[in-house]
Design brief:
CATH architecture: 6 Propeller
Mean pLDDT: 87
Structural class: mainly beta
Largest sheet: 5 strands, antiparallel
Helix content: under 10%
Length: 446
Amino acid sequence: MLASLSRAPLFARIVAAAFAAVCLAPCASAADPVPATPAAKKKPPAGSSTAAPAKKKPAAPAKKPAPPAPPPPPPPVELIGYVVMPPGTFRAGPPAGQYDDHGMRAPAPRFESQPVQGISSIKPGESPGAWWALSDNGFGNKWNSFDYRLCIYLFDVEPRTAAGTDSRTALQAVIELSDPAKFFPWRLAEEDTPERFLTGADADPESLVAMPDDTFWVGDEQGPWLLHFSVDGELLDKPVELPDNIRSAVHPLVIAGGAEARTARSRGFEALDLAGDNKTLVGILEGPVNGDPPRQTRVYRFDSNTSKWLPGTLIYELDADSTSVTDMSRIDANRFVVMERDDLAGDAAKSKRVYAIDLDKAVPGKPLAKKLVIDLLAIGNAKGLAGNVAPGAYFRFPYLTPESIQVLDRKHVIVVNDNNYPSTGGRGPNITDATEWLWLELANPL
């Protein structure tokens, strides 16, 4: 069990295809005609101009459709660092996991303390190897997470960089998120406690930004909201609502019947990062708003200095086999990488991809141009860091939810999955998903 340490001050941020099938129409066959019995030729009547009909040429056989060109090979990417954090990792705290998916309370909780799981976003910490990591909402939805306390972890992470070398993830500190000043306008699961700790029933944090002023901005899915926290995890202002009255199916007003849902339960701020001006938050919703074109999701920009949404919503379009945006990270200025996925895991996974976009090249009303930079199902393993991969075969990252990406420089990124503890399926149908951290080197700079 990993013990929770005292809250630590925040230090300055470290800069650190689809297959195609050829359809062949079956050739219809007909029985050979029975030859007619020859008859005596009759002369045409005098003056008749009737001529024998011209013989028709047989129709040319239908040409087989040419097969489409194969998809381009995935960009060369190499696994150069690897850490696996076991799923059964816990921290100090009250028991958790006593509610089912419908909010029904069991006689006893499943866990004696708080699981360290569900990493939904990462950001560099105070020194090399230190990483802030945002917890997900708990056990998958609002109703089963009343007793899971939301937090920001501080990990010390040392990857394996050569076959046989050791790696580690050590939990250094835990910042529990809370609302003692009562900015949240709706009743909380721990409403009657002085600290008013936030739980997975109150919010679903999915994206994290560590600001230059030593505060945190968190993107949420239940509102969806932007939430602003101090270094101690205390909410600094009321939740920031999306413009145009966009609310999810589990927004408190929607549940109470006072508003209409315009997004599904889990289609909020899955991706969030800071633009190069160090004040503009750029966020992408996980999926489309009701009524928007399928596979097109909205890109919002928020001025953190004035607390106002900037005009001009942009558009990000998912691949045909993708269902969700999961995270983003700034390359430089207004260029970002965006990670998207399908709803499949294990051998069935098809779409776990990372694209580069440039907001400065946005065309009003058109989806942002995007360039494939990483296929997470086609990672080189020349160093042999990932076991059980045949020599020359790709290492695959087939978890349902790869949810964290951080650009280190133009040739290196880190990717982490949300293991949705205690879910299974990523590395096998009966294997509880671990949390894997991947250090990737790109042959083609971002």
